Amino acid sequence: MASSKESGDRHGPPRKILMLTNCELGQATVFLGTCDALLKADPGGVQIHVASFPKLESQISRVSDNARHHSPDAKPIVFHAIQGLSSEQGAKKIMDRVGIPHYANNMPVSFSKPLSFSTTTRAISDTSFVFVPYDGPDMVEVVSSVMHIINQVAADLVVVDALMTASLTACFHLGIKFCCLSPNSVKGFAVPSQSGLARWRFPVLFSGFRFPVPLHLIPVNFYYLVHCAISWLSDKGRRQTAQYVKTHLDADLRSPLDLLRNPPADLKIFVGTHPELDFPLRIPQHIIPCGPISRPTGPADSNDPLLMLWLERGPTVYVNMGSLWESRREQAEDFARSLRCVLERIDVLRGDSKLQVLWKLKRDREDGSAWEVEDTLAPYIESDRVKIVSWIKAEPASILGSGHVVCAVHHCGANSYYEAVRCGIPQVALPQWTDCYDFAELVRLHGVGRIGNDSTKPNWTVAELSREMLAVLHGDTATDMRRNAKQLADLCAQRGSGAETAAAMILRECQVAETLQQYFTEKS
Questions:
Q1: What CATH class is the domain 305-475?
Q2: Residue 292 CB coordination number (10 Å)
Q3: Residue 465: left if φ>0, alpha if ψ -120 to 50, beta else—which one?
Q4: What are the residue ranges in the chain where pLDDT is below 50?
Q5: 329-350 vs 462-473: helix crossing angle, rounded to 10
Q6: DSSP secondary-structure letter at 94?
Q7: Top-level CATH class of 15-105+131-195+236-295+497-522?
Q8: pTM (2 decimals)?
Q9: Residue 186 needs a FRET pair 20 to 30 A away by CA distance; which of 73, 97, 156, 416 works?
């Protein structure tokens, strides 16, 4: 929590903090959690402004109302709608225009193909839209809107989503003091700071290599890194967007890569992890690990009491592949067969087993064919040991924290990994794209679970997936994983809330900004 010096014991108007974030929850979750912690840390002493796309406004309102319920003196969060397309909408427009094959959820087809040399290079080439999700006119509209909001709010400190190129461009161009907030690992920001051979032992995006990268694969890993650089520098769409921004705003296009190679001298990057949850590496001073940052949630029984009653019946496997992922029919059917194998085997090993499965299944919206998922699991669905739903009212963190989940199966997004770690739940990782492969490797590295599709990622087979799930649920390996998961959960608990730590660091940065402003005012 913020100290009294950093929070309430100050005179004058409330500090103004402006948060700039994309609306997708993969990135926005850390902002929701940190906003809640800021309001509770310094009620009445801080005024938070959040600028994002309209899709996020309802989430911001809930955070604001929740914080004010606990701290009546807290000021409501002011939401500013950024004009223009969201990054998701912009990326879809670009992929449609340049002909990148993609699914209905805007995921390029190359992201879902089994990893190989050709697949990795293709996927890397298809990743530029993640960092620059707009053409020239759309980028100018969003950057102009962000700059207008920055000037209008005149905040004491701006906190930026580290993946939001439009906001980074605006902040660099205006020359304002800002810091970054990210749910991702330290590795994503710190690898260029590693020395010697150590730098090349970290797997490159989409390689799927283990850490440390075996010596015989370092040349391939290096080639992928060079391919990343060439793809970025030669990308025609990126160059055209940069030129358009320069022509119409006289601004240089800035991306997350500038946080690695060209950061402001006083930049701080607050990351939602602990060093013990990450890869072993040297952490530069400007990167501040805060611990896992979750958005505020109530207990599962308050959001969905019927679900809580069902969870209380027995140990539960919780399957949630994230908000973006949509299952194709063959994937879901193989997963159902894997679950059936696991349940049958557990029943034999344990006798009268009460193991049950909660599966959040988002089906491919473009596939109207009949699926055999329910038929495969019919005996377990009829006995109410398996629930397959498209939507769950309770938040993932509430379900994981219920005390009834014994295994979390997920796509290895940052939030999924950290929520399971924080709750001490062993994991089965099914990495699907980009940095998901990093978090899957962390599951293996720290001994808190298994990679369920190591030989076929991002897809899976019945034999491999069912074998790895059983290893997490039963036997000596399962005991070791539960112990390791508990140790990491205990570490997180001992160090306190990551959101509260991030809030304290942000308030401290506000104090630094105030001191500098006072110094230059007096000097002038």
A1: alpha beta
A2: 27
A3: alpha
A4: 1-8, 519
A5: 40
A6: H
A7: alpha beta
A8: 0.92
A9: 156
